[in-house]
C-alpha cells in the first residue's frame, strides 16, 4: 500500500495521508527510539546513570542548605532527570538507569564515614529527600509509556 489510499481515503499508516498516488512510501508518524543502535543506546544509558550520580550528590548538598526551597529543587531535579530519561529513550530503562545511579549514590552518602559524619543534614528534610527520590525513581521507571501506533496493514 505504498502511496495508495484505501477505500476510506487513509494512507499507509491508517491515517489520512493527503499524498497523491505514486509518491512513495509514507514515513511512519512516530519517531524511533533514541538512539536506534544498541551500542549507542547503552552509551545513553551510561550517561544517564552518571547524571543520576551527579544529581544525587548535588541534591544531598542542596536539600538541607536552603530548606525548604533546596529540598524542592533537589527533588524537582531528580524527577526531571528520571522522567526526561524515560521520555528521551522511550523505554523504562531510560528512567531506571538514572534512578539506579541516584539510589546507589544517596545510600552510599547516608552510610557513616570513618569520621562519624554523614553527607546529609539532620532533620525531616533528609528523610523526605530520600523517600521522595526513591518513590520518584520507581514511579518514573514503572509508569507505562504510550506505545507507538501499529501500522494499519501490519496484521492483515
From TrEMBL:
Entry-linked InterPro entries: DUF6113
The UniProt record lists the keyword Transmembrane: yes
Superkingdom assignment: Bacteria
Chain residue ranges for the region called Disordered: 1-33
Keywords for the protein's UniProt record, in alphabetical order: Membrane, Transmembrane, Transmembrane helix
Residues passing through the membrane, by range: 42-60, 66-86, 93-112, 124-147
Name the UniProt record assigns to this protein: Integral membrane protein
Organism, as annotated: Streptomyces bathyalis
Species lineage: Bacteria, Bacillati, Actinomycetota, Actinomycetes, Kitasatosporales
Amino acid at each position: 500500500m505504498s502511496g495508495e489510499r484505501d477505500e476510506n481515503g487513509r494512507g499507509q499508516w491508517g491515517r489520512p495521508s493527503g499524498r497523491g498516488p505514486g509518491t512513495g512510501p509514507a514515513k511512519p508518524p512516530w519517531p524511533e527510539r533514541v538512539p536506534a543502535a544498541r551500542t549507542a543506546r547503552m552509551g545513553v544509558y551510561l550517561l544517564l546513570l552518571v547524571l543520576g550520580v551527579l544529581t544525587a550528590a548535588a541534591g544531598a548538598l542542596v536539600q538541607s542548605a536552603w530548606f525548604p526551597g533546596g529540598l524542592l529543587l533537589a527533588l524537582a531535579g531528580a524527577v526531571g532527570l528520571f522522567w526526561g530519561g524515560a521520555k528521551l529513550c522511550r523505554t523504562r530503562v531510560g528512567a531506571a538507569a538514572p534512578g539506579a545511579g541516584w539510589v546507589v549514590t544517596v545510600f552510599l552518602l547516608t552510610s557513616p564515614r570513618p569520621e562519624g559524619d554523614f553527607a546529609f543534614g539532620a532533620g525531616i528534610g533528609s528523610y523526605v529527600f530520600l523517600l521522595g527520590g526513591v518513590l520518584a525513581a520507581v514511579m518514573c521507571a514503572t509508569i507505562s509509556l504510550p506505545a507507538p501506533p501499529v501500522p494499519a496493514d501490519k496484521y492483515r
